[in-house]
């Protein structure tokens, strides 16, 4: 009888250990930020332009932390890509403070604000404007969440 109780105790203990080890880990701050960035964002304006910008979007994906840009030529035609901050596609990472998105290939985009609930994202970077030979200036992009 004592042997059966001992075996049942070990069996119960192993179930407790197995079930507790299956508990889902909380996402890290970086994972939360990447989840906020996830989706397609339309670039609707830049502080250096007099008019709205259309036809350019950036899609961030969680899987393999990749990005893709559509309408890259419109971005270049607006003289916003002299230092090739944006490329057609690649991977991205966040810095330790989670406020800079580093695109590879591409450049660094500082996250000035991010609110997926109201669909607003503001990114900034340094680049020559309006000509590639001009001194770098701070360019701030306004983006709206699509999906």
UniProtKB/TrEMBL annotation:
The keyword Signal applies. Keywords: Signal. PROSITE patterns: PROKAR_LIPOPROTEIN (PS51257). Residues 1-23 form the signal peptide. This is Lipocalin-like domain-containing protein. It comes from Marivirga tractuosa (strain ATCC 23168 / DSM 4126 / NBRC 15989 / NCIMB 1408 / VKM B-1430 / H-43) (Microscilla tractuosa).
